[in-house]
């Protein structure tokens, strides 16, 4: 088995007293979606923030293509090939759609993937092409989520981290987001998906870890998607 | 008494519409607008009110005085002024602003106070309390006659310099990737870093541009006030800071307009007030500032946004 694109090895994260996340290990290969589900406050978003260098690790290692990211700044991690689609999208509302996408180019490595990243983003999300001159702040929630994913993709990342991309979206838009994630996986990206929609995540992801009280409790496969009782039991344990 | 006041007010108003006074006021407004942009740009990106901005201008003015003392050509003096201000700005960013970037605005404000007093004290030790005089640029104080109005050359130079500088800054912010990164960092610094914008690069760029503007202001102010002392530009910086808050600090445009407005009003009152009463100029200016802030605490040129909360 080849080295994972993203390797999280025995990571503990804490802001002060006791750690919020304890001894979490997981890995994501190229062309894989790994889900991370769990109740509110389980430490899912904290884990993603730590992977991006926003929160220091108390223990353990995060590796991208086998290289440790310890001590690197968020922008250095973004430039080394990790992109985050943050919770709440965090677009630059006063900038246009196109300017938001151009900002995504900031993390694009000089020897990275060749081609026309903005053109590719518009091909993947045609609505963004139509609204490219509009301020991002006036787009609908679904359109903003597409823009947030597109902004992450134009950087040409090796790993895509998503923090609750379906939050607050209409069911039809959720369908679009999940089917787009499938398309992105087929392009060879390694995807770590943090979600509240447990069943859909388990069905889509190659495997899904359940995080509760800061610890990984269980790993589920798509075959478990229908077995919601087992998932609920894992949440409550 | 009331007749005296009424006739005094009429004189002031008739002086205020005098074209010469108007041009001088616009010239002063232009210089203050440049200072406001320098302060506003650093505030936008770093959320830092740089109280030491006036001391950068003072250092540039001393560089001009130093060159003028030795009889160096004007061009060399101006180059020295730019070099001193830019090096000091970048050193300030590297040594003070960058390590304190994650601290609270209050900590950073106090740190800039410390830098301001440090620079002022160094100037006091090197050049003494009486300072030095810049004579090399005195020619710019002479008037040119346009129509039947005498206008000082410095007013025209100030207006043109400010217009060109602000035009170039607008192009930089709107047409380059560095400008886009700076605008993004000003809106949401953490998200900008998450998408790969280099925090150190944008903060250094903001401080560098502010430094270039401070150097331009140093040249323009030394023409108006040729005696350079350790407190040079201090009063102007305080007035511009008030102007920036009055205009609306969270937006570069409103901050710039605030700086221009307070410079223009200062110039107008300075030209219109009788010489014996000119010491009351700051009283009038800050009286106006208090009035504006009472009615528009969010900023004169901002709509519906609380601007003062970050100060």
Overall description:
The complex is a heterodimer of chains A (237) and B (311). Chain A is an alpha/beta fold and 237 residues long. In chain A, 34% of the residues lie in helices and 25% in strands. In chain A, the strands form 2 sheets. Chain A has a 6-stranded mixed sheet with strand order 6-7-8-3-9-10, sandwiched between helices. A 4-stranded antiparallel sheet of chain A has the order 2-1-4-5, covered by helices on one side. In chain A, α3 (97-104) runs parallel beside α6 (141-153). The radius of gyration of chain A is 17 Å and the shape is globular. Chain B is mainly alpha-helical and 311 residues long. Chain B has a domain at 17-232. Chain B is 72% helix and 4% strand. Chain B contains 12 helices and 4 strands, in the order αααααβββααααβααα. Chain B has helices at 2-16, 19-46, 53-69, 74-97, 105-127, 153-175, 177-187, 189-194, 199-224, 234-247, 252-272, 281-295; strands at residues 132-133, 143-146, 149-152, 227-228. Chain B has a two-stranded antiparallel ribbon. A two-stranded antiparallel sheet of chain B has the order 2-3. In chain B, α2 packs antiparallel against α9 (199-224), α4 packs across α9 and α7 crosses α9 (199-224). Chain B is globular, with a radius of gyration of 20 Å. The N and C termini of chain B lie far apart (42 Å). The chains are: A alpha/beta (237), B mainly alpha (311).
The proportion of residues forming helix of chain B, as a percent range, comes to over 70%
What level of helicity do the residues of chain A show? 25-40%
Count of alpha/pi helices of chain A: 9
Strand order of the largest sheet of chain B: 1-4
Determine the number of helices of chain B (DSSP H or I, runs of at least 4 residues).
12
Mean pLDDT of chain B: 88
What gross morphology of chain A would you assign?
globular
| Unreliable parts of chain A | none
Overall body shape of chain B: globular
The description of the largest β-sheet of chain A is:
6 strands, mixed
Query: In whole angstroms, how far apart are the ends of chain B?
Result: 42 Å
| C-alpha termini separation of chain A | 33 Å
Protein chains sharing the most extensive interface? A-B, 26 and 17 residues
């Amino acid at each position: 088995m080849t080295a994972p694109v993203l390797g999280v090895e025995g990571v503990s994260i804490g802001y002060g007293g006791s750690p919020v996340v304890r001894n979490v290990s997981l890995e994501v290969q190229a062309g894989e979606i790994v889900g991370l589900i769990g109740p509110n406050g389980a430490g899912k978003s904290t884990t993603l923030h730590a992977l991006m260098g926003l929160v220091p690790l108390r223990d353990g290692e995060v590796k991208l293509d086998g290289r440790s990211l310890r001590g690197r700044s968020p922008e250095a991690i973004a430039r080394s090939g990790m992109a985050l689609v943050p919770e709440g999208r965090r677009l630059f509302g006063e900038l246009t759609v196109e300017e938001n996408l151009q900002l995504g180019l900031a993390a694009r490595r000089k020897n990275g993937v060749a081609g026309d990243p903005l053109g590719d983003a518009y091909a993947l999300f045609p609505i963004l092409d139509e609204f490219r001159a509009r301020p991002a702040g006036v787009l609908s929630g679904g359109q903003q989520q597409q823009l947030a994913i597109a902004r992450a993709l134009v950087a040409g990342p090796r790993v895509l981290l998503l923090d609750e991309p379906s939050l607050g979206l209409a069911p039809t838009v959720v369908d679009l987001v999940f089917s787009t994630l499938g398309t992105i996986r087929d392009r060879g990206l390694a995807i770590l998906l943090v979600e509240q929609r447990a069943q859909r995540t388990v069905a889509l992801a190659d495997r899904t870890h359940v995080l509760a009280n800061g610890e990984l409790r269980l790993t589920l496969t798509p075959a478990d998607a229908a077995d919601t009782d087992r998932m609920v039991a894992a949440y409550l344990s | 008494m009331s007749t005296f006041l009424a006739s005094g007010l009429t004189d002031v108003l008739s002086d205020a519409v005098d074209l010469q006074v108007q041009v001088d006021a616009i010239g002063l407004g232009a210089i203050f607008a440049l200072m406001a942009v320098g302060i506003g740009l650093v505030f936008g990106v770093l959320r830092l009110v740089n109280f030491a901005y006036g001391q950068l201008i003072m250092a540039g003015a001393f560089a001009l005085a130093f060159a003028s003392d030795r009889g160096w050509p004007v061009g060399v003096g101006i180059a020295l002024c730019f070099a001193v201000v830019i090096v000091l700005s970048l050193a300030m960013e590297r040594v003070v602003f960058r390590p304190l970037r994650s601290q609270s605005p209050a900590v950073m404000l106090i740190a800039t106070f410390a830098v301001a007093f440090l620079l002022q004290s160094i100037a006091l030790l090197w050049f003494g309390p009486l300072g030095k005089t810049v004579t090399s640029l005195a020619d710019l104080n002479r008037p040119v006659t346009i129509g039947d109005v005498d206008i000082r050359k410095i007013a025209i130079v100030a207006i043109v310099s400010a217009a060109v500088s602000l035009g170039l800054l607008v192009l930089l912010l709107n047409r380059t990737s560095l400008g886009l990164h700076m605008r993004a960092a000003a809106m949401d610094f953490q998200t900008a870093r998450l998408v790969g914008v280099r925090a150190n690069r944008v903060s250094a760029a903001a401080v560098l541009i502010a430094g270039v503007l401070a150097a331009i202001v140093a040249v323009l102010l030394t023409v108006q006030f040729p005696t350079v002392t350790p407190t040079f530009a201090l009063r102007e910086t305080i007035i511009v800071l008030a102007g920036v808050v009055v205009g609306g600090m969270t937006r570069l445009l409103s901050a710039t307009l605030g700086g221009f407005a307070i410079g223009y009003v200062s110039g107008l009152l300075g030209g219109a007030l009788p010489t014996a009463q000119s010491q009351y100029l700051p009283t009038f200016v800050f009286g106006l500032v208090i009035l504006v802030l009472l009615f528009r605490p969010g900023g004169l040129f901002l709509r519906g946004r609380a601007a003062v909360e970050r100060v």
